[in-house]
Design a protein that fits this description.
Blueprint lengths: L3 H9 L8 H17 L5 E7 L16 H10 L4 E6 L10 H4 L3 E3 L6 E3 L7 E2 L2 E2 L4 E7 L10 E4 L4 E4 L10 H24 L4 H15 L3
Antiparallel strand pairs: 1-7, 2-7, 3-4, 5-6, 8-9
Helix pairs in contact: 3-5
């Protein structure tokens, strides 16, 4: 499992919320280049959630599968055009022996452990107890300083699109919103499974469940 708190601190210190310094330098340079050219940039952000209880979601009810709920939340964010969980689209070009997570006996009866997390913490519509890994692809902003071709509706004549102040990329900001959207999905799934209308009621149930089900 990933220490999400440490990753958050690193992301907050980066102007593009990038964890790698070399990649950050290249990203900033590309943003500056596109700003000069009057263009915009999209990108892909990745969101993690650790410490998630086992068994959230459903393997049998199509409308309660957790990937579906997370996907709906992420796709509701402006300009998001694709969502991945775990290997995501790459799994379509991966052999089955390299796409799934093998399960091994744990040190205690009833406990299991994993050596990989290709499923992104969700398998069969339910959480596995591993870190949730979600990626979302955001298209470039449509407002360009060098405008695209458009049409003047009142006359049906060719025209240039409207020009106004615009950021070069909104991906770093979208990543922050993505964290909140994932949190909403998981909170809803927790309430659905454990019930209750207060933390005092919910936490003992959650603690007991985690003690009996959490993988090693």
């Amino acid at each position: 499992n990933i220490d999400v708190s440490q990753l958050n601190a690193k992301a907050d210190a980066s102007p593009v919320r990038c964890l790698g310094k070399d990649a950050e330098t290249k990203m900033v340079a590309e943003v500056d280049r596109c700003k000069t050219a009057g263009d915009t940039l999209g990108g892909i952000f990745e969101v993690y959630a650790s410490g998630v209880p086992v068994g959230l979601g459903s393997y049998s009810q199509w409308d309660r599968r957790l990937e579906g709920k997370i996907g709906q939340q992420m796709m509701s964010l402006n300009a998001i055009k694709g969502v991945e969980v775990g290997l995501g689209f790459a799994s379509g070009a991966t052999l089955g022996s390299k796409a799934h997570d093998e399960i091994f006996p744990g040190s205690k009866a009833g406990k299991v452990k994993y050596q990989t997390n290709r499923s992104g913490g969700i398998d069969g519509g339910m959480t596995t107890g591993q870190t949730i890994v979600v990626k979302a692809a955001m298209k470039p902003l449509a407002t360009l300083m060098n405008p695209l071709k458009s049409v003047k509706i009142s006359t049906n004549e060719a025209a240039a699109a409207h020009v106004e102040r615009s950021d070069v990329s909104a991906v770093p900001a979208a990543a922050v919103i993505g964290e909140s959207l994932l949190a909403f999905s998981l909170a809803e799934a927790i309430l659905e499974k454990f019930g209750g209308d207060s933390m005092t009621e919910l936490l003992p149930r959650l603690k007991e469940w985690n003690a009996s089900t959490k993988p090693e």
